[in-house]
Every structure is written in structure tokens, then in C-alpha cells.
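fyi for ur records
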Amino acid sequence: MEAATDVRTPRLRAVFREEERVTPLELFFDLVFVLAITQCTALMAADASWGGLARGLLVLGVLWWCWVGYSWLTSAVDPEEGAVRIAIFAAMAAILVAALAVPHAFNDAGLIFAVSYGFARIAQVVLLYIAGRENEQLRHSVLIGLLGSTVVGVTLLAVASQLNGVEQGAFWALALALDMAGPLFFGVEGWVLVPGHFAERHGLIVLIAIGESIVAVGTGADAKVDAGVITCAVLGIAVAAALWWLYFDVVVIVATRKLIRASAGRVQNALARDSYSFLHLPMIAGIVLLALGMKKTLAHVDHHLTIVTATAMFGGAALYLVGHVAFRWRNLRTLNRQRLATAVLLAGLLPLVIHVDALVALVVLATILVALISYETIRFAAARDRIRHELAREPVE
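which gave:
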């Protein structure tokens, strides 16, 4: 009877997590970012100009850094225990409000975005501080590093909401840069994480972003579904599948094992910060830009792409590949030449693809990505088979 009573006793304090699996609550939390990412695409689609792209990417970067904070939080704290669960729900509400404000974040909803975003960020700081009651290094990192960069970033966003034009964009860029620079200035020694969980969580957010590219295919089509739209939709799925393959076929297996085997503490935390918190951003940004390009292509399959839309589609795919190249370099110190060469090729095709129909441009993009995957699958068949069917099953010491 006493044991049963202990089980039912509520735990109102934050506790460190022990399991590596991603919990249903974390997946529920990540669903809010489906809307946030969709809103970033909508913001850029409504103003398909260089300024519109820049504003959309700034908002995406700020939202990404908020998500990164919670990925570190839930890799240290069990989100299913005690009051943390309620705090996560409150943070979800704040992020949802911020996402709703995204389309007008550079106009009359700027302050709403800053305040709701700030609430979500401060909640993360408070939860980590509570969790660190028996870990002085963690509390020191939260108070000296995270709290300072959070306050600076949120304050600059609030100031930006009262400005316009170039000055407003500059304050947004400064807020993002200073906030993301916090871990570089104050170090990572005091942070804690469960490496397998941390890597899986980032893989799931990549999957969510790729899902957004599929959503863009659906929202880009008008009421009339003809042969051009059908062809474009099929090609859009092919491109999304290529993005999935490039990340999940081999890369995620190798990177996860590398993070798990890294020495706990500064080495492991620095690898997590660089490989996941920093270098996954260009991957996510590339996917969002690509989604924008496909959305515009579906809307006008027989028109030429504008230079901005072409840059979003081909440049986004190139940025995604560059993120992969940097990710591999940080993990293995080796250069993925074929992906780097493909990124250069995609960027080099920009002056040409604006002179053909959007559907033809999408055919070119899909063909290049499929060719890259085919080359890697054939050229590195033995290594791929070993990683997927032997290395993945070996216990991590």
C-alpha cells in the first residue's frame, strides 16, 4: 500500500530525464512548430522579394533558437514529470501566439510577437534553473549565459517592433546574432543532455520541416487540378523524398553514434551545440526556402520563375546541402565533395532556370537530387550497407 501511495504522489519539481526516447509531450510540443514554419513560408510568399526572404529567414532563425532552447531543456529535464508538463503547455500557448503574429511581425504585431516569444524563452530559463538545484554548473550556465542572451535578444526584438525598414531588420538580425552567440561566449561546460534523445529530437524537427514542403505543394495548387499541377505535385514529393533520404538514410545514424560516443561534458556539449543547434539551422532554412519555391511553382506551373523564387527553390536546396557538408565536417572532419559540388551546381543554374517554365525548373531540380542520391548509393554501396545493417545494430559503449 505504501508503494502505491508513493507512485501516486505528484512530483512538483523538475527532475533530470533518464530515458532516451522522445516522449509524446515533446512530439505534441513540436507540432506547434508546424504552424510556425508554415507561417514563415506564408510570410515570404506574401512578399516574394529579397526583403521578404530576409524577413522570413530572420523570423525562422528566431523561432529556431527558441525551439533549440527547449530541445536542450527536455534533454536535461523530464517533460512528463510534475509541474514541467504544465509549463510546457504554457510555453506552447506562447509560441502559438508568436506563430500567429509572424505574418505581421514586422508591422503592427511586432510587439505581440516579442512578448509572447519572450514568455516562452523565460519559461525555459526558469525551468532549467529549477532543474539545476543540485547542479551548480548548470545553474551558473543558466544565470550567466542563457538568461543574459535571452534578455538581450527579447529586448532587441521589442525595440525592433517600434521601428521600420532597414533599422527594424538590423535590430532583428542583431537580436538573433547576439542570442545565438551566447553559447560561444559563455561556454557549454555546465550543460547536460541525453545524447541519443538530443539527436533524435533534431531528426524529428527536420522531418517536420520536410513535411512543410509537402504542405506547400498542397497549398500552392489552385482549384484546377490539371496535368501540369499533377506532374508538379509528383515532382514535389520526389524532391521532399530526396531531402529525407539525404538526411535519414545514413547521416543520422553516423552522427547520432558520434554524439553518443563523445566524452560527456564539454566535448559532447560543444559537438551538440555546433552540429545540431547551429548547423541544423541552414538545413531547416534550406527546406523552408525550397518549400516556398515549390509553392510558387504549383501556383504558376507554366510561367517562368522570378529570380527571387528561383533563388528560394535552387538556393534553398543548395543551402540544405551546404548544411550537410558543414555537419559532416564538424562530426568527422571530412569533406563531402559530391554534395558540395551539387550545391555549387544548383547555385550556378540560377541564371538559366529563370528562362524556362517553372515546371521544367522543378524537373531539373528533382533530377539533380535523384542523381546525387543514386551516385552516393552506388559509389558507397559497401559503406552504406555496413552503416545501415551492421553499425546501426552495434551497442554503443
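Residues 9-192 form one domain. thats all i got for now
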